[in-house]
Amino acid sequence: MAKNIVVIGAGVAGLTTALQLSKKSGYNIVVAAKHMPGDYDIEYASPWAGANYMPVSISGTDAAEWDKNTWGPLEDLARNHPGAGVHFQECEIHNRAKDVGSATANWFKELLSSNPWFARVVPNFRSLPKEALRPGIDSATVFTSVCINTAIYLPWLVSQCLSNGVIFKRGVFDHILDAAASGIHPNGRVDLVVNCTGLMASKLGGVQDTSVVPARGQIVIVRNDSGKMLDMSGTDDGDEEACYVMTRAAGGGTILGGSYQKGNWESQPDPNLAIRIMKRAVTMCPALTDGKGIEHLDIIRHGVGLRPVREGGTRIEKERIGGVLVVHNYGAGGAGYQSSYGCAQAAVDLIDRALNVQAKL
Ligand code: FAD
Description:
Layout: E1 3-8, H1 12-22, E2 27-33, H2 62-80, E3 86-95, H3 103-107, H4 109-112, E4 126-127, E5 139-148, H5 150-163, E6 167-170, E7 192-195, E8 212-222, E9 229-232, E10 241-247, E11 254-259, E12 261-262, H6 271-284, E13 299-310, E14 315-321, E15 324-330, H7 340-356
Parallel strand pairs: 1-2, 1-7, 2-6, 3-9, 7-15
Antiparallel strand pairs: 3-5, 4-5, 8-11, 8-12, 8-13, 9-10, 10-11, 14-15
The structure holds flavin-adenine dinucleotide.
């Protein structure tokens, strides 16, 4: 008999999990969420992401495995599905010796390596010759990556799910068991709830995972084109700030970032930080303004998103809460897109197994 599933959350985690599940027979799926693609809200990280594939996961970890398993699907989207809003773009990682030991450089350890695990996954990974580096940069690597226009990609995921029969509805749950209550699934009984609530897993009753905290990311979106993606090992403005640019597919503008402010829930852009972000971006990537100053940036909007960072990494686990089977997939931090298919597949495997062995639990 087909199983009835409720996925809480319509961010990249919930939508990708619902999509992968909907490709299998035997599941009737409802996605219920407070926020849906098209919404912009501080409790909804996915629309704010760049988003690109730039792994920081460490070789040999689950996180690296999820990232590795996501490259193939993203490459396929960029190559064969133009409607998804994902395109290929070269990605340069600039390394300054003076950043060694800083929080950002430690976090980026694998990314900054001249031989990271993903060098054998992404195409065209290489080191740049010294003469190609601008002053102040001690080494750099480059590879072919993808950049996702989240304003196209999230609705595209919804549309793929709809084509596979997934039902979408708004729902705001105080407790995870509310998602299994009558009236949520049109078939009545709910066999399993998938928890893809991101940062708000820290507040959801029955879960309240306080190891999930925000890492605040402030961005400026501009009409200027960077031509490629660039990322730096650090900034001169403190450990909570970052410097990256990427141009989204299909006219999505260029994202200038950023910040990584742990524990900070502030939803409004800080104008001083915005100026620093723009100054660093035009210095790192003169192509943005033909070598001119930040007054030559054509701003679309300022934005703030909160990365759902979880101590111990993304939680992909099965649990029984109040008699209801739950599979969690939340807490991807700054890697929700680049790990999306790997995480979704791991969650789907758990769901398959949980429902087949339910009697033994
Ligand atoms: P969210 O997108 O936050 O979605 C959570 C969903 O759960 C929402 O639909 C919400 O309404 C729903 N929900 C929560 N609680 C409840 C409740 N109680 N009842 C009902 N619904 C509920 N990642 C990358 O891979 N590459 C990048 O380049 C990248 N850049 C980023 C840049 C910035 C500035 C930021 C902020 C993030 C970036 N990320 C990037 C990280 C990525 O955005 C996140 O990891 C990802 O969006 C998390 O997705 P999610 O689906 O888990 O959570």
